[in-house]
Design goal:
Layout: E1 10-15, H1 16-30, E2 34-38, H2 40-44, H3 48-58, E3 62-65, H4 68-76, E4 83-85, H5 94-99, E5 105-106, H6 109-122, E6 126-131, H7 143-155, E7 159-165, H8 178-195, E8 202-206, H9 208-213, E9 221-224, H10 238-250, E10 274-279, E11 282-286, E12 304-309, H11 319-323, E13 327-330, E14 333-336, E15 346-351, E16 361-368, E17 371-373, H12 375-382, H13 386-391, E18 399-402
Parallel strand pairs: 1-18, 2-3, 2-9, 3-4, 5-6, 6-7, 7-8, 8-9
Antiparallel strand pairs: 1-10, 10-16, 11-12, 12-15, 13-14, 13-16, 16-17
Helix pairs in contact: 1-3, 7-8
Bound molecules: pyridoxal-5'-phosphate.
Pyridoxal-5'-phosphate binds next to helix 9 and strand 9.
Length: about 400
């Protein structure tokens, strides 16, 4: 996508075939519910238009983003399918929302009125969804306000109520009973509309964790982000995913587009989509007792080699990753970061290995030979979730798209 020349040897590789595989797998897992591919935050740093198109090819029915701006960018890049906005746009944005055929999520009367006005001005009927807060307490209408909001939507002939949804707060903990509590509140809200003769349209509640670990949360649609990118939201869900794959195997299902990639009857799990690579910029020899980088916090116990890698905290290697014992792969081996991560570079302890040369491949995330550094490994070291690691890879790192091999 990038036309400006890039000189720094650091890049992200995005495997679009893996996106298709993951979308196809998730779509099968949750069927008859449909799959919404969550591509907010530039598809968690993977590139929203590319991921949106690959996810649709894999079997996603629609995509979701957080901001009007993100929806506009998808349309400008040629994405044609339904785009759901996960937060209520400001009333001043509704003309743009209507013009770009985005589906707004609404939970306040002024936003409903603004959408109706914009729809009327455009002479078009606009699909909208209502969001009810069942315990996340971030955005969405109070359950007690929902019926009046739905009546307001129905009272506007320009608006079509296309969905009712909520968001789960603890779905990544399969044992937390609050998910069931939220689902009960959601179903109560939906029954209340039905009782008033209002058809709420598509019902949805699940993010990736909900889709994988809580079959009762799938309803008509699931909204998957992190799983689409090939990662579990939490290691606690590994057993749930394995069980779900097992039931697909038992049903004789095969993931689409994986011909030849899997043994007969075996369903391949999620494939990581993103790798992060660079090349060694410089190699230098330092004496014992030298302390490279800011603050001089890291001391070489013995004389040894240091590699300089041209990515830093602006690019998404947090200073905390160095302090937490973060590693990269060079020459098929794990190497520790040496000293403080800087804005544009990290230093790597190569020990007594004199074989590393400028230009050698560095893997920050992904495979090299038999070794692999995963997004969950980063997340664990940093005390965060895979989402934040992926979103943290900065816009200064160019994305390269890998497609069907050959
Ligand atoms: C980000 C988001 C999702 C996707 O969450 P994942 O954990 O990445 O699957 C789903 N729904 C809403 C409302 C979100 O904001």
């Amino acid at each position: 996508m990038t036309s400006a020349p890039r000189y720094r040897p650091a890049w992200v590789e995005v495997d679009l075939e893996a996106v298709r595989h993951n979308a196809a797998l998730l779509a099968r897992l949750v069927a008859p519910a449909r799959l919404c591919a969550v591509v907010k935050a530039d598809a968690y740093g993977h590139g929203a238009p590319e991921v949106a198109m690959a996810a649709a090819e894999g079997g996603a029915s629609l995509v979701a983003v957080a901001l009007v701006e993100e929806g506009v960018a998808l349309r400008a890049a040629g994405v044609e399918g339904e785009v759901l906005l996960l937060s209520e746009p400001p009333p001043s944005a509704m003309e743009e929302v209507v013009r770009r055929r985005l589906t707004p999520t609404l939970y306040r009367h002024d936003a409903i009125a603004a959408t109706a006005r914009a729809a009327k001005a455009a002479g078009r009927r606009v699909r909208v969804q209502l969001k009810v807060d069942t315990g996340m307490h971030r955005v969405g209408a109070d359950p007690g306000a929902l019926l009046e909001l739905a009546r307001a939507v129905l009272a506007a002939p320009e608006l079509e109520l296309a969905g009712l949804w909520t968001h789960l707060a603890v779905a990544e903990d399969p044992h937390d009973p609050f998910t069931d509590e939220q689902l009960a509140r959601f179903e109560k809200a939906s029954r209340e509309l039905a009782g008033a003769g209002i058809e709420p349209g598509t019902l949805h509640a699940a993010n990736s964790a909900g889709a994988i670990a809580h079959p009762g949360a799938r309803y008509d649609l699931v909204r998957c982000g992190i799983a689409l990118y090939g990662h579990l939201p939490s290691p606690a869900l590994a057993g749930h995913l394995a069980a779900a794959l097992g039931s697909l195997e038992a049903a004789g299902a095969r993931p689409a587009g994986a011909a030849g990639a899997s043994e007969p009857g075996r369903v391949e799990g999620l494939r990581p989509v993103l790798s992060w690579k660079a090349q060694v910029h410089l190699v230098r020899h330092l004496e014992a007792g030298e302390r490279p980088s800011y603050g001089r916090t890291y001391e070489l116990a013995r004389p040894g080699m240091i590699g300089v890698v041209p990515v830093g905290y602006h690019d998404g290697v947090p200073r905390a990753y160095g302090r937490a014992g973060g590693e990269v792969l060079i020459g098929g081996k794990r190497r520790k970061l040496a000293g403080t991560v800087t804005m544009d570079q990290v230093l790597v302890d190569l020990g007594d290995d004199c074989s590393v040369r400028p230009g050698d491949e560095v893997v920050l995330i992904g495979r090299q030979g038999a070794e692999e550094i995963t997004v969950p490994e980063w997340a664990e070291r940093l005390g965060t979730i895979p989402h934040e690691v992926l979103c943290g890879i900065g816009p200064r790192v160019p994305r390269r798209y890998l497609d069907r091999p050959g």
